[in-house]
Specification:
By secondary structure, the protein is an alpha+beta fold. Helix content is 51%, strand content 11%. The protein has four domains: 6-92, Alpha-Beta Complex (DNA Primase, Chain A), CATH 3.90.580.10; 101-236, DNA primase DNAg catalytic core, N-terminal domain; 242-428, 3-Layer(aba) Sandwich (Dna Topoisomerase Vi A Subunit, Chain: A, domain 2); 453-600.
Length: 602
């Protein structure tokens, strides 16, 4: 639980009513004892997303998302567990307490976050009144970044001199080693500022908290790099951050699409122009961590790229990384000599929007560039292009997406789809599973099977009908339940006696929470009434079905052993098979005949 005490987590859950929290995000409508809405986690026209105020859970019967209030905030806001707890703690006015073993590290991180927030305000104040600020403000005005841009993105100024921030920090009581650890100062003969004579663009995490900076020179004739970024720190990891994601996250979630550009000013300009689903990578090509971050918010990414060779190559590398993260990818090449900032300022946002509207798949882009270069006129060029297309297609983790890209590639190259597929399979064969059994890149393990209907039904009865728990305890054997989540839910229900089931905080995995939410949300066990449809009769029926399934499994195992046994052992296995068949026949005669046999069939 990331160091947060269990008591604190439970207090947050109690203080944050799930109907109020979800209702702040979605328009909930009452539906009997529950509330419903269109599910925010998949597209649908008929509401299948329900919130239960009594059990304090949500569940979607369409995509099977479910859990408690913390899980909802994690899924909707695309936050990790700690971030979701913090958000809800602030809402509920709960002070987050950490376990003692994690307190020093957490306290240090909190200090770094507070320091960066203070540094943002320091740089903003220096932009208004500090040495050299006139030139900085003139630059912002010339680039049309004053006013709204300055306020929304909290742009600041690091004055020349080399010790302005350090001296301020001393006066404010900040430890200099914290400035060095946070990448704001550099150690040497004396501690000095890292950022000197630069416009300061704060870089924030998903929650909008400053964790680093990008400093830009304002004079083209000055020596040194145009941009200097915060180095790797406990807060700032370049390959895991996307600039402006905190501002773009909601728009990306609504569209399920993100636009990726290269520079901070490009992303900033897009937001000012109303393209609020644009983010920037902290470098020329996307990392795996950034791709996974985008996947939490989007299904598709449009990569804007420069028209030169370096821009094309960087975009194709990014496309492969994004495809491996199960994202659909399109490439939007910019006109020669233009970037999003210059294009919007020179031709208006409509010109950039038109480029985005005509973005191509990575396969179409590579094939078109090869055609434009004349590389498809000869065999060598066609082979090189085909190899490149297969590299891109093979990067995709989704089998459906790979097949779509294969069809596109075959059409662009003028070859049969079957031929392209054979080539792709040949490449996969050459990179097949290593000896240690680990899956190759892009291949995932099969998802856990759904529980059998009778197992799910029995779990619902165990949770909602306490009067049936003694019967389940007496007549059910744990080995009869195949699905581990069903087995655990029934165990917890039996441990609850005749009271409500308590779900352990330390077992809250994604799969566990989704399953528990589905069981808790179902009310069919509560609707059972009348002698012919009683909960007891339903429980007996489920248990009986599980025993029959178990005996059938035993019979099949005996038959398999009989088939492979030496001739002298086959009569014994035949007798075992026949005994299991007799047991199955007796079980099928109904509960009154069957239940005395259970103790004889261990």
């Amino acid at each position: 639980m990331g160091g947060i005490s269990r008591d604190t987590i439970e207090l947050i859950r109690r203080r944050c009513d799930i109907v109020e929290v979800v209702g702040a995000y979605l328009p909930l409508q009452r539906a009997g004892a529950a509330f419903r809405a269109l599910c925010p986690f998949h597209k649908e026209k008929t509401p299948s997303f329900y919130v239960n105020p009594v059990r304090q859970i949500f569940h979607c019967f369409g995509c099977h998302a479910g859990g408690d209030v913390i899980r909802f905030v994690m899924e909707y806001e695309r936050l990790d567990f700690l971030a979701a707890v913090r958000l809800l703690a602030e809402r509920a006015g709960v002070a987050v307490q950490f376990d003692d073993r994690d307190r020093p590290e957490r306290s240090r991180r909190e200090l770094l976050l507070k320091l960066h927030e203070a540094a943002v305000e320091f740089f903003r104040e220096r932009l208004r009144t500090g040495p050299g600020s006139e030139e900085a403000r003139a630059y912002l005005k010339a680039r049309r970044l004053e006013g709204e841009a300055e306020r929304r993105f909290r742009i600041g100024w690091a004055p020349p001199g080399g010790a302005d921030l350090v001296e301020w920090a001393r006066r404010q009581g900040w430890a200099l080693d914290l400035l060095i650890e946070g990448g704001l100062a550099v150690a040497g003969d004396r501690v000095r500022d890292r950022f000197v004579g630069r416009l300061m663009f704060p870089i924030c995490d998903e929650q909008g908290r400053p964790i680093g900076f990008s400093g830009r020179l304002v004079r083209t004739d000055e020596s040194g790099a145009k941009y200097v970024n915060t180095p790797e720190t406990p807060l700032f990891h370049k390959g895991r951050i996307l600039f402006a994601l905190d501002k773009a996250r909601r728009a990306i979630l609504e569209r399920r699409r993100a636009v990726l550009c290269e520079g901070q000013i490009d992303a900033l300009r897009c937001h000012l122009a109303g393209l609020d689903h644009v983010v920037a990578a902290q470098g020329t090509a996307v990392t795996e961590d950034q791709a996974r971050l985008l996947k939490r918010h989007a299904d598709e990414v449009i990569v804007m790229l420069d028209a030169d060779e370096a821009g094309r190559e960087a975009a194709i590398r990014s496309a492969r990384t994004l495809l491996a993260a199960d994202l659909a990818v399109r490439l939007a090449p910019l006109p020669p000599g233009e970037d999003p900032d210059s294009l919007i300022l020179g031709r208006g946002v409509g010109a950039l929007q038109e480029i985005l509207d005509h973005a191509e798949s990575a396969v179409d882009f590579v094939a078109r560039v090869a055609r434009d270069r004349g590389e498809l006129s000869g065999d060598a060029g066609r082979i090189r292009t085909t190899e490149r297309l297969l590299e891109i297609i093979g990067s995709a983790s989704s089998a459906v997406l790979r097949d779509q890209l294969l069809v596109q590639a075959a059409g662009r190259m003028g070859v049969p789809v079957a031929a392209m597929r054979r080539e792709l399979e040949g490449r996969a064969h050459r990179h097949r599973r290593p000896a240690n059994g680990a899956p190759p890149a892009g291949e995932t393990a099969p998802a856990e099977a759904e529980p059998a209907p009778e197992e799910l039904w029995l779990a619902e009865i165990a949770v909602h009908r306490p009067e049936c728990r003694p019967l389940i305890r007496d007549r059910l054997r744990p080995r009869l339940i195949r699905h581990p989540l069903v087995r655990r839910v029934i165990e917890l229900a039996l441990d609850a006696g005749d009271g409500p089931v308590t779900w352990p905080a330390d077992e809250r995995s994604d799969a566990f929470e989704r399953f528990v939410a589905a069981v808790e949300m179902s009310d069919r066990a509560l609707r059972l009434e009348g002698e012919d449809a009683s909960a007891v009769r339903a429980t007996q029926d489920c248990i009986l079905r599980l025993w029959i399934r178990d005996r059938e499994r035993c019979r099949q195992e005996a038959a398999s052993r009989m088939a492979s046994a030496p001739p002298e052992e086959r009569p014994r296995w035949l007798e075992v098979c026949q005994r299991h068949l007799r047991e199955i026949a007796m079980l099928k005669r109904g509960w009154e005949v069957a239940h005395p046999l259970f103790d004889l069939m261990e």
